[in-house]
Amino acid sequence: MIASSLIDWSLLGHVVLVAVIAGVGVVITFSIGLAALSFARDTKRPSYARLLGVVLAVVTTGALAWALWWGFELITKKS
Amino acid sequence: MHNTLLLAIVVTVALAFDFTNGFHDTANAVAPTIATGALKPRTAVALSSLFNLVGAFLSLKVAATIASALVAQNLVTLPVIFAGLIGAIAWNVTTWYFAIPSSSSHALIGGVIGAMLVLAGGHAVLWGGLISKVIIPAGLAPLVALVAAGVAVFFARRLTAKVDRDTSTWGFRVGQIGSSSLLSIAHGTNDAQKTMGVVTLALIANGTLSSNSSTPAWVVVSCAIAIAMGTFFGGWRIIRTMGHGFTQLTPQQGFAAQIASSAVILTSSHMGLPLSTTHVATGSIVGVGAATPNQRVRWRLAGDVAMAWVITLPAAGLFGAFSYYVAHLIGGTFGVAVLALVAAGYVAILMKRSRRHAVNATNVNDLWGAPIVPIDASPVVAA
């Protein structure tokens, strides 16, 4: 009862959701990039591998930035 | 009201706490990176130190929470803050000696609250703030990190199932350099601010700053440098527990754990929640181990550590209360100075005793359960 009256559970729920989505999202993006990189290496086309390496770095960084920006915006509006 | 000498002692002790915070919590960011061989121990610690420094400048919301939401600002005195800091340092050094990854944040909060209770009683503590900003997040954070890291490593394993072992190991090790850096930024953002909040509180208590003032720039800079230096020093005993004690990490698991931890800490820092980065990092490491089939997780060790988390607030509170009582008994600035010397002696004794079973960059990756061999031990030569 005390905890219920002190805490905005809806806001806390958003924080948890954003944290989980951001964390899991970045790991999924990175793993897809790594799988694509491995595939490109297997095709014996090193230029594809290099290109995918760059794409992997850009997409992962972008995904992280977007996830955090989106999450923080959401929480800021909510609070 | 103004006591410059006392203020100087309190600020010095606060920076000493910040140093122990960095030193104690180095493991949070670097343990998986070192355990999986993504970086050499010294390199990992140096990189983490740099990013802790960067992170300390990013936000001040947690500092504001510490300074205003946990105890009644108008009742706080310099000896209370001093005693709280001594309590936190004593608990931090004790848990470091026993290689327990406990929360520096809860030690600090517990120490200040314990001293405050002796000074002014229960009404001086903002119990609502303590429950909503500290206790509930403390219970939730490791569970959220555990789930996030577990789900993340599940997807990582599925998505890279056809990737050959060498490429996977190389890729995730490279990723770990980034995830470790991000986690160091997150740690710097969340933890350096706690000391900033306490120093701000001391400046307000001394009348140097008015109530509800923001944190001065020199406080931000000095706290950032202190936590970075502590991180660089490296709390190897706890790094070993985090990196090898709970489970044996692969680069994939280390990456997933560190990204999950970063996401939880950065999100909570944005909300001004002073949660424990240690709890989050531990939750993530246990989470990736538990989510991997046929992987051993040492649940008994995890249980012992969780028990240490539960007692951190009250234990640091007792240290803080006792420190305040003794300082008050002796009286004045002299009492505070005597207690500071006693605390320094306690730290020195534990440091000296720790050398009997030294853990450092050379043996931090030894197998868990194997005896720790001090690097300066001379080999036994048969006669």
Helices, strands, pairings?
The complex is a heterodimer of chains A (79) and B (383).
Chain A: H1 2-6, H2 9-42, H3 46-78
Helix pairs in contact in A: 2-3
Chain B: H1 4-35, H2 41-55, H3 61-68, H4 78-97, H5 104-120, H6 127-159, H7 165-205, H8 217-233, H9 236-245, H10 251-270, H11 277-290, H12 299-330, H13 332-354
Task: Tell me about this structure.
The complex is a heterodimer of chains A (79) and B (383). With 79 residues, chain A is an all-alpha fold. Helix content of chain A is 91%, strand content 0%. Chain A is built from 3 helices and no strands. Chain A has helices spanning 2-6, 9-42, 46-78. In chain A, helix 2 (9-42) runs antiparallel to helix 3 (46-78). The radius of gyration of chain A is 18 Å and the shape is elongated. With 383 residues, chain B is mostly helical. In chain B, helix 1 (4-35) packs parallel to helix 13. The longest helix of chain B has 41 residues, at 165-205. In chain B, 59% of the residues are buried. The model of chain B is unreliable at 372-383 (pLDDT under 50). Chain A binds chain B through residues 2-3, 6-7, 11-12, 15-16, 18-20, 22-24, 26-28, 30-32, 34-35, 37-38, 41, 60, 64, 67-68, 71-72, 75-76, 79, and chain B through 128, 131-132, 136, 140, 144, 147-149, 151-153, 155-156, 159-160, 162-164, 167-168, 171-172, 175, 178, 182, 255-256, 259-264, 266-268, 270-271, 273.
